[in-house]
Amino acid sequence: MNVLVTGGAGFIGSHISERLLETGHAVTVLDILDPYYDLGLKERNVERCRDAGGDRYEFIEGSITNDELVRDVVSGRDIEFIYHQAAQAGVRTSVENPKKPHEINTTGLLNLLLAADEYGVERVVNASSSSVYGEVEYLPYDEDHQNVPQSPYGVTKLTAEHYCRVWNEVYDVPTVSLRYFTVYGPRMRPNMAITNFTSRCLNGEPPVIYGDGKQTRDFTYIDDIVDANCSLLETSAADGEVINVGSTGTITIESLATHIVDETGAPVDLEYDDAKEADARHTHADVSKATDLLGYEPTVDIREGVSQFVDWYRANRDWYEPLVLNS
Prior knowledge:
Strand content: 15-25%
Strand order of the largest sheet: 3-2-1-4-5-6-11
Structural class: alpha/beta
Largest sheet: 7 strands, parallel
Number of helices: 12
């Protein structure tokens, strides 16, 4: 199958691309290479996928906000399936600059949907986020929970979900939106808490927690995210749906930091700073819908996953840590 992965030089997109190449598909990646964090990591992801896919892999540098480029990529390569992972990520970043995530996360998606309709793409899988939930009414979140996003980023992701629903219902373009819950693992973004805590501990510095540390997160290991995405190559049961993809468990940020201190053996204590605006207090996924429709079963819990990540970080520290410190 000819597959387009937008944002395929990034953390999640590159892992999806790699799995697709391993299973024999042809992958085209469209990525603007935005220096949101050190581009060395994205460039390394591209080379890794190129090595895995050979002539079945093509990288195109460009933006999904360029309508003509999107149409040329989809039509010129006979794209049959789209994994839309490109986004301006970051709740805190969106508070500082709300216009950029709107243009990329909303207008960019609309360009993809228009091209998918025009050129008969079989399915568009949209990467959404637990940030669409916002204010907690009950936990764990199921997909019927109210959506009251607390950041511009969350608003753009919810808008994108509605565009996907409308394209499925009105234009007969099969779409699925997967609501990710804090994804982590090897090659993860340098500006995430797990990366930051690990780097600081391995350099003898205390992890810094924003707020009281009692906030909880549902962290999802990258392999589970890739499994959920790739299952959609085989089924139409989820067309038109929004689906949570999480781990089913939670951990406080304080416990997470303590676990990383223990795993690294760092002789440090935790430090605390002021809470960040628009950060969610709690996230927790009900994944029963994903189980019913996709056969999804998360395989890695947070403590096991963090241990694996710390081991990976140590093994790749020579090239990965400079990118973390530079981001």
